[in-house]
Design a protein that fits this description.
- Its main location: cytoplasm.
- This is Proteasome subunit beta.
- One of its GO terms (biological process) is proteasome-mediated ubiquitin-dependent protein catabolic process.
- The structure is a single chain.
- This protein has one domain (16-208): Aminohydrolase, N-terminal nucleophile (Ntn) domain (Glutamine Phosphoribosylpyrophosphate, subunit 1, domain 1).
- By secondary structure, it is an alpha+beta fold.
- The chain has helices spanning 2-13, 66-87, 93-106, 151-161, 168-183; strands at 19-24, 29-34, 37-39, 42-45, 51-55, 58-64, 114-121, 127-132, 138-141, 144-148, 193-198, 203-208.
- The protein has a five-stranded antiparallel β-sheet with strand order 10-1-2-11-12, covered by helices on one side. It has a five-stranded antiparallel β-sheet with strand order 5-6-7-8-9, covered by helices on one side.
- It is built from five helices and twelve strands.
């Protein structure tokens, strides 16, 4: 029975298809996702948002079941606004990662079918990235993190393309190429990409075109 449940939950994660990746540069980070919303192999939309803003220096990407991603984001915005009212400041990325982890673990017996990717600039504009599973087990990294149905090919592309201490433009080029190369190898994600490049002084949003077949 337990094996059957595991198989069902795997199918749920693959139901809408997704690809999310975050990568660290020199005092900057980039977070990117594909734009396809599908129902298994049928494409429903080609402009679906998977990367959400928490504040100017903190973003979260949510792969997995699209409806759960939207619900979880609304709950996280609510929690962050409560924190801002109480503390009169924005939440640091490390604290936000702990909040997301606790929120997911709280629902572990009926989980949100999402795998978050968190990226932000912390103290002294030090980039912070992490990912976690659907019950909040954190995985920290100094280079890149990935999630979604294209995660296997994303790992391979990022491993081969990543270099430490990249400047913002090189970081944008690297994460875009890695995302494009990966979603071309995954039939459940793709149809272009959305890339956010965040430095201490600015946030750049770019939409990249990809294969539409």
């Amino acid at each position: 029975m337990a094996g059957d449940l595991g198989f069902v939950s795997l199918q749920i994660f693959e139901y809408n298809g997704s690809a999310v990746v975050a990568m660290v540069g020199k005092n900057c980070f980039a977070i990117a996702s594909d734009r396809r919303l599908g129902v298994q192999l049928q494409t429903v939309a080609t402009d679906f948002q998977r990367v959400f803003k928490i504040h100017d220096k903190l973003y979260i990407g949510l792969s997995g079941l699209a409806t759960d991603a939207q619900t979880l984001y609304q709950r996280l915005v609510f929690r962050h606004k409560l924190y801002q009212l109480r503390e009169e400041r924005d939440m640091k990325p490390q604290a936000f990662a702990s909040l997301v982890s606790a929120l997911l673990y709280e629902k572990r017996f009926g989980p949100y079918f999402c795998q978050p990717v968190i990226a932000g600039l912390g103290d002294n504009d030090e980039p912070f990235i992490c990912t976690m599973d659907c019950i909040g087990a954190k995985e920290l990294a100094k280079d890149f993190v990935v999630s979604g149905t294209a995660s296997e090919s994303l790992y391979g592309a990022c491993e081969s393309m990543y270099k430490p201490s990249m400047e913002p433009e090189e970081l944008f080029e690297t994460i875009s190429q890695a995302l494009q190369a990966s979603v071309d190898r995954d039939c459940l994600s793709g149809w272009g990409g959305y890339v956010l490049l965040v430095t201490p002084t600015e946030v750049q949003e770019r939409v990249i075109k990809g294969r539409m077949d």
